[in-house]
Amino acid sequence: MGIKRSIYEVLKVFSGKFKLEVLDWMWSNRASLPETALHFDISAPSTIWSWEKKYNEKGVEALFNRSCKHYYLFRDGEEKNERG
Prior knowledge:
globular; 3 helices; 42% helix; alpha+beta
């Protein structure tokens, strides 16, 4: 038998180029956060809000910051990084 892991949620990591494309589309179409999230199949409109906030506060370079870690949240509430 193999190891059973019941992953509840995997956090997606989006490229800076994609983030900028999403924001440009939203601004040029005067779309709301939910409309933009739907258009780009992003589950949480608040994700786009955080990108816009970073852009407004720190500039376009902030969208390309790759300092995030990949975490997996298991049903037992324990977080583990991608190495286990």
